[in-house]
UniProtKB/TrEMBL annotation:
PANTHER family: QUINONE OXIDOREDUCTASE PIG3, QUINONE OXIDOREDUCTASE PIG3-RELATED. This is Enoyl reductase (ER) domain-containing protein. GO terms for molecular function: NADPH binding; oxidoreductase activity, acting on NAD(P)H. The keyword NADP applies.
Amino acid sequence: MATMRAVDIKEGKGGISNLYINDQTPKPTPTAAQALIKVKAFGLNRMDLLQREGMYPVPPQAPKTLGVEFSGTIEELAGESEQGFKKGDKVFGLAYGGAYAEYIAVSTHMLVHKPEELSWEECAGIPETWITALQAMYLIGEFAPGKSILWHAGASSVSIAGQQLSVANGASATFATTRSDEKCKFCVDELGAKAAYNTKTQKWEEEVSKATDGKGVDIIVDYIGADTFAANLNAAARDGRIVNLAALSGAKLKPEQAQKVDLSNFVRKRIRFEGSSLRSRDEMYQGRLRDQLVDHALPKFKDGSFKVFVEKVFKWEDIQEAHRLMESNQTKGKLICVIE
């Protein structure tokens, strides 16, 4: 059996110290419409931290190896591979798992040709974050030009992508929240947000109300959960859409948080609150989002209008250090590992 090197987890799950490179990992074989990719770089995502700890519901088709986004070259194609790809092509893409490795087998429906204008590291930071942002905006939030939108965790990778997409695609106003003045400034100066609010020092829902003349915001994209639930309902406009992608502050309301919730907002404002995830979606759904990424974003990456903000690049042998930095919540953008 052919083997390769891949990041593995001692005892199957655990803390950062359990991460190591296993040189006896079985090398995947592409089947159906898959391609075998020799990985150049892979991106880190917060789900990786949860999966490492055994706290993330991994799709049944995913290998145990971490990682869902990568860049690299096509080494081999299966018989039913999508037309337009050939051996040797430079690509980047989204997978159900397995990107922390020298090789990954992934559906060609989730591959994109790498533009020469972008580096391997930049391309490895696009698929999960930008496709998640597009899904939240369009498929769930029903974004259209002229609508206003607010992105929580404004310096996170998905919200960095989302703010750029919102500004470029005609939002009437783009807002963000962060937990530091420095990150708020980043959202306004670098990403084009109309305003960003420090949730530690400002009542952001009141600021949004002022900024929208009391109307509220049409779409809110939230990863925070319990801490923002009540304020989201207050800040949403009539017929507003609240898209929940995670619950970083907790999945259950504490008594003091529950007391602040005004459920009449749902009826008075006709609010729709909808949760979603990307990794659990089927290949056809993800493929439509791949096409949307190519149509909406790829030309703007090529001409420099859209930027992939890479905070730091690590050698993949330093995967523990990379996970440690992600856990610190100090970053503004992507963490990328490269395989020499």
